[in-house]
Amino acid sequence: MPRTARPKIRLYTDADLSPGGVISATEPQAHYLLHVMRMAGGGDVCLFNGRDGEWRASVTVPAKRRADFVVGARLRDQAVEPDVWLAFAPVKRLEYLAEKATELGAGALLPVLTRHTDVTRVNIERLRANAVEAAEQCERLSVPQVHPLQTFDAFVNTWPADRLLYVLDETGAGTAILEAMEQTQKPCGFLVGPEGGFAQSELDALKQLSSARNVSLGPRILRAETAALAALACWQALSGDWRASNREG
Amino acid sequence: MPRTARPKIRLYTDADLSPGGVISATEPQAHYLLHVMRMAGGGDVCLFNGRDGEWRASVTVPAKRRADFVVGARLRDQAVEPDVWLAFAPVKRLEYLAEKATELGAGALLPVLTRHTDVTRVNIERLRANAVEAAEQCERLSVPQVHPLQTFDAFVNTWPADRLLYVLDETGAGTAILEAMEQTQKPCGFLVGPEGGFAQSELDALKQLSSARNVSLGPRILRAETAALAALACWQALSGDWRASNREG
After folding, report:
1. Contact check, Cβ <8 Å, B242/A217
2. Which pTM does this prediction carry?
3. Is B226 in the A-facing interface, judged by CB distances under 8 Å?
4. 20 to 30 A Cα–Cα from B119, which one of A131, A206, B39, B80?
């Protein structure tokens, strides 16, 4: 492989990235590089932190079981990404939801405890790790922000007034998604309920939100995670960076 | 539960459905009804076969470990469904792909062996069982037809000339999906390649198909199954039964 090819391994770091900087790999990163990928003899990776773009970095091994990154040249500039959030009642296959939502460009993941939510405990650290891994693999330059689990009431009370909220209404009463969505770059988010659906009191509370619009995804009953991913895909296609005209860089 | 409510259990059957007909449950269905759902005392289910609509049926127990369905009234007429196929290089999480594609209304699933396909064996019976189960749960009136695994060459040579083929081109060279798709009810299908991408010779062969159009799903590198589901969602939203105007019944 010529040295100019972009390294295949991409890793997320919290650290600032600038030329010549030296960053310590986390323990799992060092394990992955040295033992899974057997890079003890050195090699290059891509690093990104969600702020400074993507950088080439050389792996060095300062001590047994440790790895450092020596930052080289910038490969890509940080770009402004479409601003779409995903709020969801936790489902059983949360790992899958986090992975797919990251691939589909969600900027934030907000687990919400609704009346009929089956899954009431969420491992936020694990959800974040799923999102980091998916971001590394899909060549994103950022990682979705994972919010702590909150109650439905707290969610409704703190939703930003200037952010559209598309509610995935499984009763079928919502507007067809492409008709409901604005073809704008305005910040927005989707809310998907639990398998058991929203409680009537929750639907009523959502109606009070001036930024909320009920959206329908057709006649079949979609699992919560299918609905979330389908909605994100439709949004990226209509209003996000899947439109050539909306893409930076 | 009042007797007029629609039964919660939905089951697919190969048999014809007409009032008063008696149908033997399959062995797994009998096990599910009698031992999992404990319906030894009888009860109602919904039956569908992809041809005759959806019917209420009473469960009877003619012998130990056996169950029969006595068909009652029709609950829903069979409707014409959007005609979209999904062709794919088999991926590791095929069960998930079959489930989601069924929820998203794919009419046929076509596994295709491409040059860079990692997974070279597909359990077609299992794939079909995944599709049946998903159809039962998502309230579809049909089950996607699962085709046998075929080579890429056979796939290209037998693709119907009058069916649009949207190729999910991971090189990014395709047209943005909402621009590439025709907002028509014309039969179509999507082809998604393996994680390793299509071989150049495969992309060249696809170019020779007059019905093929390359489609892009934005700047991030999607997993094959994410791309397939995202594309189906966009298609249903633009041209399928997620548009209120395209819905029957």
Report:
1. yes
2. 0.94
3. yes
4. A131
